[in-house]
Please model this.
Amino acid sequence: MDSETYWHLKNFNLLQALSDEELKRLQDMVNTDWIRRKDPVYLPGDPTEWVYFLKKGLVKLSMTAESGKSATVALLKPGEVFGELSQDESQRSSMEAITLKNSYLCRISRTGFNDFARRNKDLILSVNKLLGLRLRKIETAVYDMLFLDVPSRLAKLLYQLSLSDSIEIKNGRLITMPLTHQELGNLVGATREMVTNVLGRMEVEGLIGKDGRKLIIRDIRRLEAMSHGKGFQA
Amino acid sequence: MDSETYWHLKNFNLLQALSDEELKRLQDMVNTDWIRRKDPVYLPGDPTEWVYFLKKGLVKLSMTAESGKSATVALLKPGEVFGELSQDESQRSSMEAITLKNSYLCRISRTGFNDFARRNKDLILSVNKLLGLRLRKIETAVYDMLFLDVPSRLAKLLYQLSLSDSIEIKNGRLITMPLTHQELGNLVGATREMVTNVLGRMEVEGLIGKDGRKLIIRDIRRLEAMSHGKGFQA
DNA sequence: CTGGAATTGTAAACCAGTTCACAGAAGTTC
DNA sequence: GAACTTCTGTGAACTGGTTTACAATTCCAG
Model:
């Protein structure tokens, strides 16, 4: 492999615990794929036979109903691992994974990975930790869906995006993650129209601004506050 | 301990992998508690310092908002394990665990349990499997909340209760789990009134019946069908 | 078996968010 | 830079579910 695309499994948190020798062994089990923007990695109903390591790009993990409605569960960035990790020999995927940018990812067979992990206490512990994190994340997502209204949920999302995916600009922070209103809606469980509407109000209130189609966070404090209480309270 | 209350850790799925010797060692780390019906095991905000094994009784795990609204995440029966299991040194509990019947449970310090598990590959693997199951369960809960209406969610719940907590009677199955309309509502994410209303319609349709305050499942087939599609479709 | 507490039943008013139906703006492609 | 596609903006009509307020029933303790 050339040095441009040469990839260290080492860069994945999950694998941090492995020795160089073990990494080499694992490396032999790995396939690397390139997937074009908007193409699927896997679809609902596919067997869960691979574990994926995202090397470069952006992947959206979402649930879809037959009605066509869909909800985004996670946006995965380089270094993140997805696919069914637990030992449990579960049937088929309920989710769909689609790239939002051209992406490089590595793929290990689930059974292969599990056999490998079985011989590596530290790796099992890492998997354990990761599952715990995922669990807590989805639990708070449930909490938010049940107890917060759409403006609060959107405020929270923008707050988080501003921490994880933005750059400092004059008078605010520019969100770099390329998300349409539709995709924001899928992330907070609301319609595209509702998102447009709420963002409009937020702009009037001076909480956010926009540069063409990109969002600018203007008052992160108030956004953060809003993400707890009841939306716009008047 | 007398033979009535003597308890084999062995009966817990999670611990199946342990040898008798290991079980003995674990047993020394265990406290047994008796908790009165309706009393809490822990509350939101409590530190997550224990892992619990429910020996006898019934425990409700739920999330509550400051508004007082609450959602039930799980009903735990003897043999089930709860509390924060993953290695991740997470802060405080977001959930509340309350007994619905007088209950016996065993309690192991989380750090103790984790140290113990760290030396037991098979145990960690079991924990992983359990976390995987929990994850899948909550994922389908999210799916249901997002894509199914209240009648469908309730139908699904009744269907499941009829599989797991009912006894055969003449002309149907009697649900043995003691749940009020309020509690059914908390389980499906709806108000008490909505539950009363939907159950009423289900009774008219001949899907269910009631014996005093207890529910009887009359047509499990149609309930099951209903749990997929759009509630009452006319 | 009786009095009070908890649960169920009911219906009208209300509301957050969806649906529908377009119009305008911003990017993209050739 | 024209033609197209994708995305944003907007408002009216609608709807599933909540809220509120009470009445009726069931349960349980003494």
